[in-house]
């Protein structure tokens, strides 16, 4: 009998271990799925609340300090400079912070889509699914700062706290009570930039990021970012222009070395 009880006890313990490992594995799978919920059109149900990155948003160099100050004090910020200077990360992180603190009602993100002249209609799915590959760089930062559960909630069409606004669907819209991010702005045309900037309403912080040295527009088509930098040449109480250089790259030493090699 003693041996039989020991066997039964061992079997029970083995089952408990298997169930525990199964639960842990399931939680790991859910964490992976959560980050892609709206990118793939899948909506999870009953997912456990997760944590968000609450680390301080700090400048790593003088120009980043100017950039953060501009986001906090100006309504329209143009930031131009080489890759890896933190333009996208800092703008998205500050937008998430403003949303969490209820300083704004929503975050609106735009990145130009050059393929098929913004003709997203050829891609399957709704507007969020069509734009998902282009939204990804900003999405990943918002996901980290908002947490996947809250991000999931914000992306729901009926909630609309995080919105995607491709140029093909922008005409006639007005952006209000929001942080609006236009990323990769060097790839918008002059007319697109004008249309974007005339969508802006009350209580908005508008952040226009880009690198005029990496313009992918067809030859002979002027970059809307380059044109805007000529029109808005100096800072004032509403507008700030931030210019990053190769030395401001913080992505990695290798990235900085690459910029130097191609400079």
Describe this structure in words.
The chain has helices at residues 2-34, 37-40, 62-73, 87-100, 127-146, 148-155, 190-197, 224-231, 253-262; strands at residues 76-80, 106-110, 162-164, 178-182, 204-210, 239-243. With 263 residues, it is an alpha/beta fold. Strand 4 (178-182), helix 7 (190-197) and strand 5 (204-210) form a beta-alpha-beta unit. It is globular and about 75 Å long.
Q: Spatial order of the strands in the main sheet?
A: 3-2-4-5-1-6
What number is the mean pLDDT?
80
Helix content: 40-55%
The fraction of residues assigned to DSSP E strands is: 5-15%
The secondary-structure element order is: HHHEHEHHEEHEHEH
Shape: globular
Terminal CA distance reads: 81 Å
| Derived structural class | alpha/beta
Strands, total number:
6
Q: Which stretches are poorly predicted, pLDDT < 50 over at least 5 residues?
A: 26-48, 115-119
